[in-house]
Design a protein that fits this description.
This protein has about 230 residues and is mainly α. The protein has eight helices and no strands.
Length: about 230
């Protein structure tokens, strides 16, 4: 697979560039994110750092909640369940196959489904209990750290950013794509805390895990090359 340069939202991605540059940037993103993830895991286990505020923030949102908001955010969280992410991914995979972009389909498999499996493995490694509040939604029996919904959303929308940045040369559109992906991931993360299924440090760790996994994949596999970008 020919490598492309790690994408910068402010400028178009070159059709081809140094593979070593991409590997270095991906490896640095992975390393820094892994370090941050270790800190968050330690904080969750010892109730230090960000985890000190977990229960206070969760209680504040729980007490301020309304049935309407819970219903709306419940729809957001249902769309980004494991089945939801894989369902949207299947549609994306069909589009990639139709375009003949098998290299991007392979990259999607490495980023999204594999990253979600890494999230599941980390859950069983940390084994943090779910939040529990009086009058909250039914308590889940599996573990809380990190949030699978948030990790799946961050991986999925992050992949769309990687794919979309190579399809337009217009900086406003590129930044809009990045901001939309960040907003959707933040909305999913907020919904999980609001509904009482996760602590804030759980969803923060999910985003960091997604960055670490994506960075690692880019360091190893790189990005498929693209034809000339459209300026339309």
């Amino acid at each position: 697979m020919t490598m492309g340069q790690f994408p910068d939202p402010a400028r178009p991605m070159p059709a081809a560039s140094s593979a070593s540059s991409l590997r270095t940037r991906g490896a640095m993103l992975c390393l820094l994110s892994v370090l941050a993830l270790l800190v968050l895991a330690r904080d969750a286990a010892t109730h230090q750092g960000l985890a000190r505020y977990d229960r206070a923030v969760s209680l504040l949102l729980h007490n301020a909640g309304t049935p309407l908001h819970a219903q709306l955010l419940g729809g957001v969280t249902a769309l980004h369940s494991t089945l939801g992410i894989l369902g949207m991914g299947a549609l994306l995979a069909a589009c990639l196959l139709r375009r003949g972009e098998k290299a991007w389909l392979a990259l999607w498999c490495m980023v999204v489904p594999a990253g979600m499996l890494a999230n599941l493995a980390l859950k069983h490694l940390v084994r943090r209990p779910r939040p529990s509040f009086d009058g909250a939604l039914p308590h889940l029996s599996n573990f809380s750290f990190p949030s699978g919904h948030t990790t799946g959303a961050a991986l999925f929308y992050g992949f769309l950013v990687l794919y979309g940045l190579g399809r337009t040369a217009q900086a406003p559109r590129r930044w809009l794509l990045v901001l939309a992906a960040c907003a959707m991931t933040a909305l999913v993360a907020f919904s999980r805390v609001y509904l009482g299924f996760h602590f804030p440090s759980d969803v923060a760790a999910s985003v960091v895990l997604a960055l670490a996994w994506t960075g690692g994949v880019l360091a190893i596999a790189g990005l498929p090359t693209r034809p000339a970008l459209s300026k339309a």
